[in-house]
């Protein structure tokens, strides 16, 4: 027996909630889907009539929004009615690391999750399936269960009829930049929960486009933990290859060849082995810190120290890169112009959360550099917020006591008069830079620091530019 689902509500119209609901709406035109968010500005951007200002840049997303919005996909701030009408509610709100109090710096702040559970408890009617989509610490479902259970007040029940809930965990494995493809062709769909009827109802939705063999069901805690561990393993791979990049730079080996050779082993596999400026994004660091917190809580101190190192290597890699830039520019970058290519945490997204560019730019600013920052999708306002420093649109100043930064709209302007260019995000357009032109407009001696192995450095070198690439000694 399955419960028939007609109406879905998703709380949280962010990088997860927005694309996930867009794909469900497209694949299931018979479902009515309402995405709600407390942020009015974000909702009005989702409703932008000509779709030029969607709050999230994600390849393929605009097309689906155009097709489904206003038909079976709606964005609003109207929480109460949409909760009331929903047979199934997805919780996709953010769960940042706690800034203060118990577990500060490690544990997830669940205040938004709790707020959602309370709103659901208050406004839902009849039987509602509640699904954890946000990545959460293990056993968060218990908190949600407690709050929802507490709402089943006898007098109230008499008034509105029976009010019951089933809680499922259905973690999202999409990666930004490839979210639509990841959602349409998932490696697996993971569903945790005890209520078989609710689990079947969710499976039935996914079966509209996902092969049954890819849908894996388990208990709630295994599902919650699997998401944390998947992210921890992925991040660990990046810290591993980044630690190898430093060994390669010291010994003269090439990290890209090492990654290829190592990845040819079927047991290791070729993916996710690109050395770079360290991992960013909203999940990896937060999830590992959360794992560390859980391990400490259970007295597993060696295990927590093991995972903590993955984060430490990541911080170290970012610091290492800013130090290398300063060292190669004769130990001082005060008053020098440095072109920064890429500010998002990876290509094909406008998301800058935990982007390595933030720490690296801040370190260069502290050394007094004038940064010209170019990113095809990140706005100057976002950069200003992340760097916590006002943009300086004036001409370059030499002998800076304090660094300055300015956003740049073209590759040429970013390079004009620059002493060095630093490539921090793997945007495809950086592969096709016209180095003959760039060499002419830079100040000599000029440098390129390629932290993503994205540039044609042989070409750059042929025009007299000094080159440095991640995981390779300066001998090319
Ligand atoms: C997601 C996941 O949910 C998180 O657990 C994961 O680890 C990172 O990715 P994401 O979609 O990227 O979060 O977050 P974000 O883009 O910040 O979107 C969350 C949205 O929820 C925001 O728009 C926020 O306004 C909204 N929100 C938050 C609510 O609508 N109600 C709340 O009570 C809290
Ligand atoms: C990640 C997980 O991949 C996804 O399954 C989960 O749901 C959310 O967290 P995301 O953070 O969007 O997704 O992007 P991802 O592609 O995993 O990249 C994370 C960071 O690692 C980026 O900064 C990226 O540049 C970096 N990275 C990735 C590398 O440095 N090298 C690689 O080989 C791969």
What does this structure look like?
The termini are far apart. Helix 12 (284-297) runs antiparallel to helix 13 (301-328). Helix 5 links the parallel strand 4 (88-91) and strand 5. This protein is 42% helix and 13% strand. It has helices spanning 17-27, 40-46, 61-68, 79-85, 111-123, 140-150, 154-160, 179-184, 196-206, 220-251, 255-263, 284-297, 301-328, 356-366, 380-387, 411-415, 435-441, 457-462; strands at residues 7-11, 32-36, 73-76, 88-91, 127-132, 164-169, 189-192, 215-218, 337-341, 370-374, 404-407, 420-423, 447-450, 466-469. It has 3 domains: 7-218, NAD(P)-binding Rossmann-like Domain (Rossmann fold), CATH 3.40.50.720; 229-276 and 288-312, N-(1-d-carboxylethyl)-l-norvaline Dehydrogenase, domain 2 (Orthogonal Bundle), CATH 1.10.1040; 321-469, Rossmann fold, CATH 3.40.50.720. The chain is α/β, with parallel strands linked by helices and 476 residues long. It is built from 18 helices and 14 strands. It is globular. The strands form 3 sheets. Strands 3-2-1-4-5-6 form a 6-stranded parallel β-sheet, with helices on both faces. Strands 11-10-9-12-13-14 form a 6-stranded parallel β-sheet. One uridine-5'-diphosphate-xylopyranose binds next to helix 5.
